[in-house]
Amino acid sequence: MHIIENNFLRVSIHQKGAELTSVYSKPLNLEYMWNGDPAFWAKQSPVLFPIVGGLKNNTYFYHNRAYELPRHGFAREKVFSVINQSSNEITFSLRSDEETRLVYPFEFEFEIAYSVDESTLGVKYQIRNVGSEEMYFSVGGHPAFKVPLLENTKYEDYYLEFGKAETSPRWAVSHDGLIEEEPIPVFKHDSVIPLQKELFMHDALVFKDLISKKVSLKCNKHDRGIDFDFDGFPYMGIWAAKNADFVCIEPWCGIADSVSTDQQLKNKEGINKLSKREDFNREWRVTVW
Question: Which of 189, 190, 229, 279 is deepest in the core (most CB within 10 A)?
């Protein structure tokens, strides 16, 4: 386990998957991350790469060859290298190798940098195409925040508030993890989603076209919560395991296959393309209060 900290935050990250495991406020004596109870969901903040969500039949095609990848890709199960660390920042790296090439035929360098600035944690993704041909990929975050945050409150006391009034529908997820073709209304020129465990009985709430760049986790009973900034991530998932005491706020550059996909990687909705030697950079931030 690796720790970065300042006077406000202590943040822990596991080297396997470069997975965030703790965001602890020192002044408030308060942990904000889900504890990873395996009875519900053993993860806490898996990194999604080189795909987000699932593939139809766990398979995609590239240059007339079939490849298989599990839901959310392989990065969350790989041990990253630490290439830079100071008291308040750490950078992890994952490079393509013989094992990754069997399921993903691209040469890449993937760096994840965690840094703390007062009560804000920044998480930066840098993906570099080090091969000789175009590279196709998706990337995303999956952090799980503890709900309820404080004792003597319950899950239903909390809500998500987006930065702007929204009209975006959500896209249902099929029983095999694919995106359905018909959207479901959620917002009516408003910005709030009250949290109820029943929301996630049929998988995540998936959004494609939010206009907000920030969402906050708030409570009706106290003034503790988080602000989550996701500018640059065109897709968003909101999810929790059934009956679990957390909510995931998931910024995505990419999305699961649709039920009507042709399974061609180049045609995949939300896929990102990098020319050789080109970089891709994104950052999400969470501020605790």
Answer: 229
Q: Is residue 97 part of a domain?
A: yes
pTM over the 0.90 mark: yes
The 10s digit of each residue's pLDDT in 170-227 is: 999 999 999 999 999 988 889 999 999 999 988 899 999 899 999 999 999 999 999 9
Segments forming the whole domain that contains residue 110: 2-284
Which residues are CB-neighbours of 92 under 8 A, at least 6 positions away?
13, 15, 18, 80, 81, 82, 83, 111, 112, 113, 114
Token pair 């007339």 in the structure block, residue: 64
Q: Three-class SS of residue 200?
A: helix
CA 137 – CA 178 distance, rounded (Å) = 18
pLDDT tens digits along 17-51:
999 999 999 999 999 999 999 999 999 999 999 99
Q: Are 160 and 250 in contact (CB under 8 A)?
A: no
Is residue 289 one of the residues assigned to a domain?
no
State the CATH number of the domain containing residue 72.
2.70.98.10
For residue 66, give both structure tokens. Answer: 């079939």
Q: Are 3 and 10 in contact (CB under 8 A)?
A: yes
| Number of separate domains in the chain | 1
Cα–Cα distances in angstroms (integers) from residue 255 to residues 46, 96, 103, 263, 287, in the given order? 15, 22, 18, 13, 25
Identify the CA nearest to 282 among candidates 100, 101, 137, 77: 137
Cβ-Cβ contacts under 8 Å for 284 (sequence gap 6 or more): 122, 123, 141, 228, 229, 230, 233, 251
